[in-house]
Design goal:
Elements (H helix, E strand, L loop, with lengths): L14 H7 L2 H4 L3 H17 L5 H19 L12 H13 L12 H36 L5 E6 L2 E7 H26 L1 E2 L15 H8 L3 E2 L3 H6 L2 H27 L7 E3 L17 H24 L14 H25 E3 L1 H7 L7 H9 L5 H18 L8 H7 L7 H4 L2 H6 L9 H14 L3
Parallel strand pairs: 3-4
Antiparallel strand pairs: 1-2, 5-6
Helix pairs in contact: 3-4, 3-6, 3-8, 4-5, 6-7, 6-12, 6-19, 7-10, 7-19, 10-11, 10-12, 11-12, 14-15
Length: 459
């Protein structure tokens, strides 16, 4: 079969090299985008009278027929075509004859593939926006029902201070909001049209790049033809934003995995989102969060691959760029499936053990800061109060007791400003309630945050 390159070549490719060189096995994912790109290009060539009106109509009708055949399962791009672009051109020529050979006027596969990827990625980012909003809503609904549920807060994986469970969950809404914002920023740079840059130097053919941009919904065009065909920053940015989003999904996955262990027993998995063991009948495994945690490394790997791909590559287009597609294809599929899985898990896969959570904040020293703050409110300098409470903690550990087990006389031995009301301040519910600084875990603040997110997510 004749190849897309010129008759400058006398011999055919070695069969292995032909297969090694081809991208049709994965870039056929871009078929609808390539058809849209070609239709817009044909319209532009007709507008600028490079093509006659009859030629333009013939090409567009041919491309539309290819689209229909593909959607109906009658056309499946595959080898021996080298890539999706040549595959469609070859199909078009077989449908409409010599006129089909005019479609590639004024463009190269270099600017064509750059346009296709951007069209595809723009759509994927729009889909991710919807998925992340759904995930945020799932976290918000769970938070709304757990404003007054207490959970231990940790730093360095050591008990720190008690929190409202809702406050803990709302932290993830903030993370996912930053993810949404990052993807929006990436989309702005994705939405720049390279078509018309041709191979790298532009073209002498009379074209109208702004017309093509408008047809395809691009906000602007590349101002430098060399940059247009060699820019893959947007691919790296997309995978980078995805990697950060995956890190947030992995973080909550790790917490859920810990929460459902017997050692924590803060929550349990429902049968809808857990699997069993083939050997141990008692097991209920957290496969969903474990898979998400594992797939995070997959996306990190794609980011490293893309960064390495562009490192030291000279201007302009190089065959290295064929390696951009599989990482972004897989990244988009991976992050989309992980977001969907986490949304289902939060909606119907996890149930919190309220009693165990309540008991957990009653049996530690996570109210130590509040004991110090009590003295601060009695005009004792914080650093002095801090040292006093440290001594009390040491005393309690030696006696194998908690603050709530102390008598007021014992406390007064450490500092005379202690009084009976200190025990009220040390109750975990009151500890959490008192954190009323803006952004804090106090119930009044959490309620405000819930209202804020309800308005933001239009619930």
């Amino acid at each position: 079969m004749a190849k897309v390159w010129s008759k400058r070549f006398d011999n055919t490719l070695n069969p292995f090299i032909e297969k090694f060189n081809a991208s049709i096995g994965f870039d056929r994912k871009l078929i609808l985008e390539d058809l849209a790109c070609s239709i817009a290009h044909a319209k532009m060539l007709g507008k600028t009278e490079v093509l006659s009106s009859s030629e333009t109509l013939q090409i567009i009708n041919g491309l539309e027929k290819i689209k229909v055949e593909y959607l109906e399962g009658k056309f499946f791009p595959s080898s021996p075509s080298e890539d999706i672009h040549y595959c469609i051109e070859e199909k078009l020529i077989s449908l409409i004859g010599e006129t089909g050979k005019k479609l590639h006027t004024g463009r190269s596969r270099n600017d064509q593939v750059g346009t296709d990827i951007r069209l595809w990625l723009r759509k994927e980012i729009d889909n991710l926006e919807i998925l992340i909003i759904d995930l945020q809503k799932s976290f918000l609904n769970l938070a709304k029902s757990n404003i007054y549920t207490l959970i231990p807060g940790y730093t360095h994986m050591q008990r720190a201070q008690p929190l409202s469970l809702a406050h803990h969950l709302l932290a993830y809404l903030e993370m996912f909001q930053r993810d949404r914002e990052r993807f929006k920023e990436v989309r702005l740079r994705v939405n720049t049209l390279p078509l018309g840059a041709a191979a790298l130097a532009g073209t002498k053919i009379k074209i109208d790049r702004n017309f093509t941009a408008a047809e395809l919904g691009f906000q602007k065009i590349y101002k430098n033809s060399i940059d247009a065909v060699s820019d893959r920053d947007f691919c790296i940015e997309f995978v980078s934003a995805s990697a950060l989003a995956m890190s947030h999904l992995s973080k909550i996955s790790e917490e859920i995995i810990l929460w459902v262990t017997d050692e924590f027993s803060f929550a349990k998995l429902t049968d809808k989102c857990a699997t069993g063991s083939s050997l141990m009948p008692q097991k209920k495994n957290p496969d969903v969060p474990e898979l998400i945690r594992g797939k995070t490394g997959r996306v990190y790997g794609h980011l490293q691959a893309l960064l390495t791909m562009v490192k030291g590559v000279p201007l302009a287009y190089n065959k290295d760029f064929q390696e951009d597609k599989e990482p972004i294809f897989d990244t988009a599929e991976t992050i989309s499936s992980c977001i969907k899985a986490m949304t289902i898990l939060i909606n119907e896969g996890i149930e919190f053990n309220i009693k165990n959570l309540s008991d957990s904040v009653e049996n530690d020293f996570s109210n130590a800061t509040d004991l110090a703050d009590y003295l601060v409110c009695k005009q004792v300098p914080f650093r002095t109060a801090y040292q006093v409470v440290g001594e009390i903690v040491k005393y309690c550990l030696e006696k194998k007791m908690l603050f709530k087990d102390l008598k007021i006389d014992e406390l007064k031995e450490f500092h005379p400003k202690f009084d009976e009301d200190v025990f009220v301040d040390l109750e975990p519910f009151n500890v959490v309630k008192s954190r009323t600084s803006e952004g804090g875990t106090g119930f009044s603040q959490v309620e405000k945050e819930v209202i804020h997110w309800e308005k933001k997510l239009l619930l």
